[in-house]
Design a protein that fits this description.
The protein has one domain. It is 73% helix and 0% strand. It starts with 29 loop residues before the first helix and ends with a helix.
Length: 263
């Protein structure tokens, strides 16, 4: 076979480098967000129920319904379970967002809000909550839900009030907002639902995480979810909704302490 000869003085043919193409970042749409949302919720549940299971085993004795109710209703158990839900949610979110190849902070809109944004969010929250308090008084209902009073009393009894504050004011707002207003809203707002549908649906999912309340407070939680969803849409910052959510929980704890006459 004749060999290929290159004439003297002629340039060698250029070799085209082979460059691997990388798939572009993506945002999970409706079904992707829904399925990954179930995965994230399951991680949150496992993280929280793990604490309950540990307290049940540590308690000893027969495991029955009455023992489970006693353990689950304890302030220390609730505080630690809420706090353990945060790393579980963060890990699940990291997996879902890592696969999408989108930067974590960009996907969840972890942008620092301005002082004006914070002021607007705080004032809107105050107006909304005061409206619900007035409606509650007019209907002859208690302003603070019974669940809050029971958890507060239990936490004070076992010396874990400070853990309860951290759990309700820091851990719960962070995990729930990263999940609802960060992940769910981001994907659903870029689907056929659009921003309005994403605000409503993510608020419904978030409200479903608060089944410990009766129908009245359930409606109040949903309305707060709509406000947080609007703030997420208007200012494009999940950190803003985390802070406003935390302020709401802090105010609820302080209100419960004042109403129960415990300081």
């Amino acid at each position: 076979m004749d060999s290929l000869e290159i004439p003297v003085g002629s340039a060698a043919p250029a070799l085209t480098p082979i460059i691997g193409t990388q798939r572009p970042p993506r945002i999970w749409r409706f079904w992707g967000t829904a399925l990954w949302g179930l995965f994230i919720f399951a991680a949150m549940f496992i993280g929280q129920i793990g604490v309950v299971a540990w307290f049940m085993l540590r308690r000893g004795g027969p495991i029955d319904i009455s023992a489970a109710v006693h353990v689950v209703g304890a302030g220390l158990t609730i505080s630690l379970s809420v706090m353990m839900g945060l790393p579980a949610v963060l890990a699940a979110l990291w997996i879902a967002i890592r696969i999408s190849r989108t930067p974590f902070a960009d996907y969840l809109a972890l942008r620092r809000p301005s002082w004006i944004d914070l002021a607007i969010g705080a004032v809107a929250l105050i107006v909304l909550v005061m409206g619900w308090d007035l409606l509650s008084r007019a209907a002859g209902r208690e302003i603070a839900p019974g669940f809050m009073r029971e958890v507060l009393n239990s936490a004070r009894a076992d010396g874990s009030l400070w853990l309860l504050v951290i759990a309700f004011v820091v851990a719960a707002p962070t995990s729930e907002e990263f999940f609802a207003r960060g992940f769910l809203y981001r994907g659903w707002s870029e689907s056929f639902l659009g921003p309005v549908g994403a605000i409503v649906l993510s608020s419904l999912v978030w409200t479903a995480l608060h089944l410990q309340y009766d129908w009245f407070f359930f409606c109040e939680v949903f309305s707060i979810g709509l406000l947080l969803g609007y703030l997420r849409y208007r200012f494009n910052s999940t950190w803003l909704t985390v802070i406003v959510h935390g302020l709401n929980n802090l105010a609820a704890l302080a209100q419960t302490i004042l109403l129960t006459g415990q300081g």
